[in-house]
């Protein structure tokens, strides 16, 4: 597995939500949080609505819901927030706030104002802690972005994916370059300190030249952060439903509006695309799509470094001239997260929990409908989740630390767990032998060769029990 495809899965959380199972009996949130520190929590609010479902998206979201459902969702969100806040003892300490989805700015300006009111009533110190909100080119309108700024949003993240219309369309994201530029200008015109742009590489027909064009177009806006995502095609997504394993794309590539002169953009799809992200698709250098993605990743990494960006993870780049974050300390390895909304996760030291999860359109709608029908008392309990024993806690800490460019301090691991990470995880020697892990200034960090294989190293470090639970999950 470790020597197979470098693109096996994005381990953005551990354990993955597909390892969650119904909790029976459902534990009361008061008991779940009773022994937990609640003075420095991450607060995540989930809005499961978008103006469209992108072809690569496997998030829990519904496109173009009826207005009455959005109204009902905000009403239910307020009920849930009141019950969860009560279970945590009232007005917990919030160190950071993230609002995602879906696309939160699918809400109207008035609905966004109401959403921030729900956060404030929960105890979120709007304007006093880092607050991130996701948006899209179509919904980043002046009235909506003004509401974000008025309520202390410090970071807006926008998924551009490509500055070439044809490439965006090939990734299942129909958009126009003019709309992207308008959205970015709108965000920059408001008092929001940080802009993040998401770009995707590995799109069918994408070349080094078209990739450089999108990178330069992004850099022209001087974003504080840029995320570079490899394209994955997962079950039940738009691309996953229409694409079977194909041979390498051949034939002419249609022109796309806004492309640089003399280049083509996406037409066919790359090889090996059928179920990427669910398992190995071939050794690096052997599968054409792997070869394409790895080359484009390296190009993007080097391009951003040369432009003055620090690499924080395989995906995450931040402008090197920015001051260090002076916000309250928060570490996802150590601190808890409380989620609001039917697609939000919550983390304690012992239990990760959420509501049910699906990707397919019908199942997503059913889960949202179920959330809206629930009596308020239902929000006093955890619904589905995964209990972490001592071994899984150690593994989560390692994975969440190791996949960051800064790595981790083995002494900190020993202080926390009373053991040496090399004894608990002999796999670290495997990484070192391959030249993917180094000890530097009393820290263990991935080398460039290791960072670029984060999407193989992360899944490789998943425990046997979690892997088995994920394998039993039936996509729906």
Automatic annotation (TrEMBL):
<dbReference type="InterPro" id="IPR034505">
    <property type="entry name" value="Coproporphyrinogen-III_oxidase"/>
</dbReference>
<dbReference type="InterPro" id="IPR058240">
    <property type="entry name" value="rSAM_sf"/>
</dbReference>
<dbReference type="GO" id="GO:0006779">
    <property type="term" value="P:porphyrin-containing compound biosynthetic process"/>
</dbReference>
<feature type="domain" description="Radical SAM core">
    <location>
        <begin position="35"/>
        <end position="270"/>
    </location>
</feature>
<dbReference type="InterPro" id="IPR007197">
    <property type="entry name" value="rSAM"/>
</dbReference>
<dbReference type="Pfam" id="PF04055">
    <property type="entry name" value="Radical_SAM"/>
</dbReference>
<dbReference type="GO" id="GO:0051539">
    <property type="term" value="F:4 iron, 4 sulfur cluster binding"/>
</dbReference>
<protein>
    <recommendedName>
        <fullName>Heme chaperone HemW</fullName>
    </recommendedName>
</protein>
<dbReference type="GO" id="GO:0003824">
    <property type="term" value="F:catalytic activity"/>
</dbReference>
<dbReference type="InterPro" id="IPR006638">
    <property type="entry name" value="Elp3/MiaA/NifB-like_rSAM"/>
</dbReference>
<dbReference type="GO" id="GO:0005737">
    <property type="term" value="C:cytoplasm"/>
</dbReference>
């Amino acid at each position: 597995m470790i020597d197979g495809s470098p693109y096996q899965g994005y381990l953005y959380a551990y354990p993955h939500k597909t390892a969650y199972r119904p909790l029976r009996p459902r534990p009361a949130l008061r008991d779940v949080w009773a022994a937990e520190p609640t003075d420095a929590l991450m607060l995540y609010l989930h809005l499961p609505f978008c103006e469209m479902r992108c072809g690569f998206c496997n998030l829990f979201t519904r496109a173009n819901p009826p207005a009455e459902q959005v109204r009902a969702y905000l009403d239910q969100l307020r009920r849930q927030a009141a019950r969860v806040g009560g279970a945590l003892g009232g007005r917990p300490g919030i160190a950071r706030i993230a609002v995602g989805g879906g696309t939160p700015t699918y809400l109207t300006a008035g609905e966004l104002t109401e959403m921030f009111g729900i956060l404030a009533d929960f105890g979120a110190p709007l304007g006093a802690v880092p607050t991130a909100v996701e948006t899209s080119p179509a919904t980043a309108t002046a009235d909506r972005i003004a509401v974000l700024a008025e309520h202390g949003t410090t970071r807006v993240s926008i998924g551009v994916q490509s500055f070439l219309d044809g490439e965006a369309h090939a990734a299942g994201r129909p958009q126009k370059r003019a709309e992207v530029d308008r959205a970015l200008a709108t965000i920059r015109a408001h008092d929001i300190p940080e802009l993040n742009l998401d770009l995707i590489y590995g799109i069918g027909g994408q070349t080094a030249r078209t990739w450089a064009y999108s990178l330069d177009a992004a850099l022209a806006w001087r974003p504080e952060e840029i995320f570079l995502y490899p394209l994955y095609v997962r079950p039940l997504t738009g691309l996953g439903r229409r694409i079977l394993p194909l041979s390498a794309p051949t034939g002419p590539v249609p022109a796309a509006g806004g492309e640089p002169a003399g280049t083509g953009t996406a037409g066919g799809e790359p090889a090996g695309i059928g179920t990427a992200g669910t398992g190995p698709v071939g050794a690096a250098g052997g599968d054409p799509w792997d070869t394409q993605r790895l080359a484009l990743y390296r190009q993007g990494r080097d391009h951003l470094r040369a432009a003055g960006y620090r690499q924080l993870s395989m995906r995450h780049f931040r402008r090197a001239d920015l001051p260090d974050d002076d916000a309250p300390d928060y570490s996802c390895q150590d601190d808890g997260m409380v989620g609001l909304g039917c697609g939000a996760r919550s983390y304690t030291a012992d239990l990760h929990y959420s509501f049910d999860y699906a990707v397919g359109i019908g199942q997503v709608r059913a889960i949202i409908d179920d959330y809206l029908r629930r009596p308020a008392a239902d929000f006093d309990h955890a619904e589905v989740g995964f209990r972490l024993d001592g071994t899984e806690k150690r593994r989560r800490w390692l994975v969440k630390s190791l996949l960051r460019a800064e790595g981790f301090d083995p002494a900190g691991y020993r202080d926390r767990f009373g053991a040496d990470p090399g004894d608990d995880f002999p796999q670290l020697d495997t990484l070192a032998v391959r030249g993917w892990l180094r000890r530097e200034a009393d820290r263990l960090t991935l080398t460039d060769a290791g960072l670029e294989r984060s999407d193989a190293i992360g899944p490789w470090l998943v425990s046997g029990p979690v892997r088995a639970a994920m394998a039993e999950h039936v996509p729906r």
